[in-house]
Specification:
Blueprint lengths: L1 H4 L5 H22 L4 H8 L8 H4 L5 H7 L7 H27 L5 H26 L17 E4 L3 E2 L5 E6 L5 E8 L6 E2 L3 E8 L2 E6 L1
Parallel strand pairs: 4-7
Antiparallel strand pairs: 1-3, 1-6, 2-5, 3-4, 6-7
Length: 211
């Protein structure tokens, strides 16, 4: 078994498995110390783990992909463990099957892409299943309309009246929400990195004024 796990063809999958073990060890040590490394990461990373589901279907860019991968529904630690574990297991199963059939492991150029695709699919379906099991925290749930007056930062592209773009805003609980924004008047343009104030929501799009 050890020879199989340490075989050259299984190196990427063994690395993923080691990372999973390390993540669990670090989080356990942090919990004993009364901290949580991954809770801190959830609050500090620019990647949103609490995407506004009401606007998600209309938002382009990274938000849709992260939502499909269930990063918006799972805590960061659980999502990372799910991704890495799926990648490792998929790779091991592929190589074990190859070993039984041909008595040899497949090249990494074949197994890694296949395992990666399986990992993405697994993240979507298993992620949804796990998210449905996990208890929901309702104490910080807010209405989308309560974002009025919040400051948002343009995350991509440019926005003009009639052509909204993606921005990220924080609510009173410091949770992030990705929204579509456009200027309230013609002749104004929002570029990436600009800070705007959310004024009103019309359907899926927020009108905003630049700070």
């Amino acid at each position: 078994m050890l020879a199989f796990l340490s075989a050259h063809g299984n190196v990427p999958f063994s690395i993923a498995l080691v990372i999973v073990i390390m993540l669990g060890t670090f989080e356990l040590i942090a919990m004993i110390a009364g901290l949580s490394i991954f809770s801190a990461l959830d609050n500090s990373l620019s990647v949103d783990t609490d995407v506004d589901m009401d606007a998600e279907t209309s938002i382009t860019g990274m938000t849709g992909l992260l939502g499909w991968l269930c990063l918006d529904r799972l805590p960061l630690l659980i999502w990372l463990v799910l991704i890495l574990s799926s990648f490792a297991i998929a790779g091991y199963v592929i190589n074990f099957t190859s070993l039984q059939i041909s008595a040899a492991l497949l090249p990494q150029l074949i197994t890694v892409p296949i395992a990666f695709i399986i990992t993405l699919i697994s993240s979507h379906f298993l992620g949804n299943a796990v998210a449905n099991i996990l208890p929901k925290n309702e104490t910080s749930a807010i209405s989308v309309d309560s974002l009025v007056g919040c400051v948002a930062t343009i995350t991509q592209g440019r926005a003009v009246k009639g052509m909204p773009t993606e921005a990220v805003a924080r609510d009173e609980f410091q949770q992030k929400h990705y929204v579509l924004v456009e200027p309230e008047r013609l002749g104004i343009e929002f570029v990436r990195g600009a800070e705007v104030v959310l004024l009103a929501r019309k359907g899926k799009v927020w009108t905003a004024a630049q700070i």
